[in-house]
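Support request from a user on the community tier.

User writes: "When I paste my structure tokens into the form, the page sometimes reloads and wipes my input. The last time it worked, I copied everything first. Here is what I submitted, just in case something in the input itself triggers the reload:"
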């Protein structure tokens, strides 16, 4: 039997991994304790997504906490070497939340990852492991790049090598400011690479930019595109924070990210680190994103601007994915920015209940 284990299986990336891999494995084992609701309240609940994946016949859910080594041991102990792929997405995803509770953040993101890798080493050492890391491990290093301000966005100087393809994996974050979230994710990222080089685990590290999609339970502290659309659909005010609203991000649909994992699984390169993002053609500033959403839907995004910027919040980030595409030429993102905006819009326009809430008792 071929088993894939997905941690964070009710969340955005984990849920899409479950939906994509259910047809490619005999069994999908999901691990998620619904902690997103503890982080962000009922608006952050992943109950709807959990209910959706639980309809998949070969999906089995374990409400386990990745901080609990015994719980992970008991899940992995059941399947042993049948586990062929482990996709680790369980985590605390917000810089702001981490600033409030850095020890919890460290435990979930860093210790949780160590627990998982230790469990893989003990029960299924030949499994391929995918770690969802973040561009935030580089801190605010990108803010030292030569940037220019245009009427709608921050942009890198056209003569700079990053202009055409974005930031590659070689950017150095040594002297950069880094949030506590960046610290906990960097610890996990480094641990994963040590398990690859020192213990022979077949781990790949994916440093993601901004990933989103219809199932993202976007809230003010995490998931800006989802939160923007969700606010617009509900007629709520969207907060634009710092940099004149001209900060640029590239966006990748979680379904495209999951296909990167699939390519890696088929031909793993242990210890490799890949940037994962949407690239220049899926990039926009917040102001541009608002304009594009309004153009596409005819709706309006009421927003309020606060000039005080977030700590270590860079003005410009576009992800260079050429390293991954060189190693895996079969991968290309298929979802464009308009497609992403419309699918997120359709999701929230379709949720009839009370606004900004999830539902159900379990998450
Ligand atoms: N979405 C992005 O833009 C983005 C960008 C960079 C990195 N990442 C990383 O990708 C991963 C997945 O992100 P996402 O957007 O799907 O997040 P998400 O919050 O939607 O999903 C994470 C899931 O993990 C679960 N979880 C949290 N703590 C847990 C614990 N202690 N034990 C078990 N389950 C727990 C949550 O309930 C949630 O369902 C995270 O590690 C995040 O840091 C995401």
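"...and here is what came back when it finally went through:"
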């Amino acid at each position: 039997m071929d088993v894939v284990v997905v941690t964070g299986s009710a969340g955005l990336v984990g849920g899409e991994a479950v939906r994509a891999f259910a047809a490619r494995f005999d069994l999908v084992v999901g691990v998620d304790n619904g902690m997103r609701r503890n982080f962000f309240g009922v608006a952050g609940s992943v109950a709807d997504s959990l209910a959706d994946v639980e309809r998949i016949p070969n999906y089995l859910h374990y409400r386990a906490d990745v901080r609990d080594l015994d719980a992970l041991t008991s899940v992995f102990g059941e399947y042993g070497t049948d586990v062929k792929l482990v996709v680790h997405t369980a985590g605390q995803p917000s810089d702001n939340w981490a600033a409030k509770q850095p020890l919890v953040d460290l435990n979930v993101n860093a210790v949780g990852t160590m627990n998982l890798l230790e469990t893989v080493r003990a029960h299924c050492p030949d499994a391929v492991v995918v770690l969802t890391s973040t561009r935030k491990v580089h801190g605010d290093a990108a803010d030292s790049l030569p940037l220019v301000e245009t009427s709608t966005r921050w942009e890198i100087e056209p003569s700079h090598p990053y202009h055409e393809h974005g930031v590659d994996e070689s950017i150095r974050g040594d002297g950069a400011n880094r949030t506590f979230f960046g610290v906990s994710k960097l610890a996990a990222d480094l641990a994963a690479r040590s398990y690859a080089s020192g213990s022979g685990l077949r781990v790949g590290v994916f440093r993601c930019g901004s990933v989103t999609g219809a199932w993202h339970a976007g809230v003010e502290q995490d998931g800006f595109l989802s939160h923007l659309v969700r606010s617009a659909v509900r007629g709520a005010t969207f907060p634009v924070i710092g940099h004149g609203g001209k900060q640029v991000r590239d966006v990748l649909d979680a379904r495209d990210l999951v296909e990167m994992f699939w390519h890696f699984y088929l031909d793993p390169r242990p210890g490799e680190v890949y940037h994962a993002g949407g690239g220049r053609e899926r990039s926009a500033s917040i102001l541009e994103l608002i304009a594009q959403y309004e153009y596409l839907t005819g709706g309006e995004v009421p927003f309020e601007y606060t000039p005080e910027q977030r700590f270590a919040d860079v003005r410009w980030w576009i992800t260079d994915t050429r390293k991954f595409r060189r190693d895996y030429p079969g991968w290309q993102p298929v979802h464009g920015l308009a497609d992403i905006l419309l699918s997120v819009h359709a999701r929230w326009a379709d949720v009839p209940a009370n606004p900004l809430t999830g539902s159900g008792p379990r998450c």
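Agent notes: The reload is a front-end session timeout and is unrelated to the input. The longest helix spans residues 102-123. The chain has a mean pLDDT of 96. Escalated to web team.
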